Amino acid sequence: MNILITGATGFIGKNLIARLKDVHNIHILIRPSSHYNSLQIGHVFTFEDNVEKLTDYLKNNQISGIIHLASLYIAEHKSDQIKDLVLSNVYLGTALLEACKMAQTKWFLNTGTIWQNYQAADLSDDYNPVNLYAASKQAFMDMAKYYVETSSLRFCTLKLCDTYGGNDTRRKVIALFHYISENHIHLNMSPGEQKLDLLHISDVVNGFIQLAEMLNDDEEVATEYVLTSGKQISLKDLAHLYEIENKTKLDITWGGRSYRMREVMKPYKGHVLKKWKPMISIEEGLRLFE
């Protein structure tokens, strides 16, 4: 397949490309300010807000489908960040969809978040965004509805829980534990009773590959799926497990800060991708973490 990937320089993008590039022809879409040389990808399209040029690129390179990973994550936004959230999480994807429609691209695999379903009943589709980031992800899915209804594009969203793995530079919780352990730093945290659903990057990549193949092979798919570990653990218990698996002690004051507004105390459980299941337990994943 000829696959175009956005968000290629991110944590998930790098790991996905590493798995795909020896099997498929991988193209990446970047912004002018992106640094991508470490990816060693020869097919690069720089998007400068010209949808016609993007359309031509999709046509000329016979792109089968797009895996859309690019996004801007802000847990608690400030007013001057609204524009960037909309440009990154709504505008870019919509420009891609417009190009897909004109180029008659076959499929589009979108990335969502379980934070779009705050306090939703398990297996429901109840929309309730945790924050503006989650709202922007839903807004893009609403934009996509138009393109699905007016073209032959196959569109599916894969919603993610918390992800982790080696060489993760994001300020995610396990990477944070690793940082404070290595640098002997004290950290104030919430009371730590919130539950987490954590999925190792290798399982995440497997999910994306499986769904991309289903879309390309004309298999029946739902409009969205969720990747989940199937297990939940409290933040405090996760810290204790990290200490055990890594033979270290974390300097954390529990209750040293308050829960965030709209803290997710229990992660949403949606419809899991068929035939996919997680292979790496949290215990093994913590041992693999570097």
TrEMBL record:
InterPro entries (UniProt xref): Epimerase_deHydtase (IPR001509), NAD(P)-bd_dom_sf (IPR036291)
Domain of life: Bacteria
Pfam families: Epimerase
UniProt organism field: Phocaeicola dorei
Name used for this protein in its record: NAD(P)-dependent oxidoreductase
Residues of the NAD-dependent epimerase/dehydratase domain: 3-217
Similarity comment: family membership: Belongs to the NAD(P)-dependent epimerase/dehydratase family.
